[in-house]
Specification:
mainly alpha; 157 residues; globular; 0% strand
Length: 157
Amino acid sequence: MHALLGAYFAGAVLAPSWARQLPLERLGGYALIGLAPLFFGHSGLRIDGEVLGWASLQAALALLLVSVAAKLAALLMCPPIARLPRREALAVGALLQCKGLMEIVAATILRDKGLLSEHAFAALVTLAVLSTVLTGPLFRWMLRGRRAAAQARYEYV
């Protein structure tokens, strides 16, 4: 928790003139390729192997199904843009699946404070990893055929 708050406050007090000089694209790429897998791996290693059984996996899969269905249904009922095609609204819902980092941070804090059992922690970390991995394929599946249609439209123009 202290590291999370420290990083937040360091960014908040950073001088804007100095922040504009930072190569954010390169730092973001390094964080995504170098640090994110280390964070996910470290969090996965903190799971007690004995509690990660069939019951935890069932709970994670059930939570995954409920979370995917809820996000997709919410975006179908209330699309972010009026008259957004159904397939594109579902693609936005697929992008909402990528929430693993914050979920793991929250689960780790709750477990460290004794508010979350080891079984629930294992299920939530598994859910976070599965939902993050699911984001790309689900997004591509929702927009299948759109690229070919767009290319065909530009060929005849």
